[in-house]
Amino acid sequence: MPTLKCPSCNQPLTPAGNGWRCDNGHQFDRARRGYTNLLLAQHRRSRSPGDDKAMVRARTDFLELGRYQPLVDALLADLPRDNTPWLDVGCGEGWYTAQFAQRLGAENGVGVDISKFAVDAAAKRDKALTWLVASGARLPLFDQSMDRVFVLFTKLFVEDLARVLKPGGELIVVGTGSAHLLPLREALYDDVRESGFDAGRFLDARFVAQNEQEVIFDWIPDNEEELRNLLTMTPHHWRARPEAKAGVGRLAGQAMTAHFVVQHWKKINSE
Questions:
Q1: Burial of 44 (0-12, 13-18, 19+ CB in 10 A)
Q2: Across the strands, what pairs with 19?
Q3: Long-range CB contacts (< 8 A, 24+ apart) of 251-255?
Q4: Cα separation of 84 and 107, whole Å?
Q5: Strand locations in the chain, DSSP E?
Q6: 9 CB-contact burial (10 Å; exposed 0-12 / middle 13-18 / buried 19+)
Q7: Residue 204 bridge partners (DSSP)
Q8: How high is the pLDDT of residue 44?
Q9: Per-residue pLDDT, 247
Q10: Which residues, at least 6 apart from 15, have a Cβ–Cβ distance to it below 8 Å?
Q11: CA separation for the pair 142, 147 (Å, rounded)
């Protein structure tokens, strides 16, 4: 199990009863579901940051259909079967994380998300994983403690990514390509903007690009519920007009496009 860092004083946390404790007496209890909340009140911008219950439920229901399994298969194809420490930043409800654990080992893995509702749902998937409520900008992990870090569809907190990755460690970043959910976007907006993902716009010289892969496939949404769950788990849920969102059900039975960009980066020794 990776060593956790106390968010209050930066000392190591060790298991103590049903939780964690540092030498300075800071105690963090493990929730009934099995996760630990290491997000301090002063580090939250709202009372319940991140995805709310409805968004987590929608994401869970959609992902459990397996529509995005081709993306996971592409990611797993490049992963070795090793036992080194790894981290999933912005793990959400853990659908991807649990599948990474099958290849990389759950006992070496950490899933982090700022949403307590998401981590509560994720913790049901694999009890051997270390599930944490924490910010990607303040990861409760020690410097150079991770061999591999995943960042799927969430903000890149470059400083902490560089801090926790070992020299030579691997950063795997996934974003959406220009054709992602194009039929849905065309139904929601009069003017559909195309933009491709590139983590290089955010990463600095501490990271060197290794390779890039595009994963593109179609599937057929079965019904309006599936489409509404898909919409709820995307930024379009907040951006699109209510009247436009009301009509997404008509896309049921029509081809929907998934377009992902997978980038592998190497952390170099900056000294």
A1: middle
A2: 29
A3: 251/183, 251/184, 251/187, 251/221, 251/227, 252/221, 252/222, 252/223, 252/224, 252/226, 252/227, 253/220, 253/221, 253/222, 254/183, 254/220, 254/221, 255/183, 255/218, 255/219, 255/220
A4: 10
A5: 4-5, 12-15, 19-21, 27-29, 36-37, 86-89, 109-113, 130-133, 146-152, 165-176, 207-219, 256-267
A6: exposed
A7: none
A8: 73
A9: 92
A10: none
A11: 12
Residue with tokens 């960042």: 151
User: CB of 56 within 8 A of CB of 124?
Assistant: no
To the question of domain 37-267 being in CATH 3.40.50.150, the answer is: yes
Encoded tokens for 112? 């982090």
Over the stretch 36-83, which tens digit does the pLDDT of each residue have? 999 998 777 667 778 899 999 999 999 999 999 999 999 999 888 888
Instruction: Please tell me the distance from the alpha carbon of residue 54 to that of residue 128, in angstroms, as a whole number.
Output: 26
Q: Which sequence spans correspond to the domains of the chain?
A: 37-267
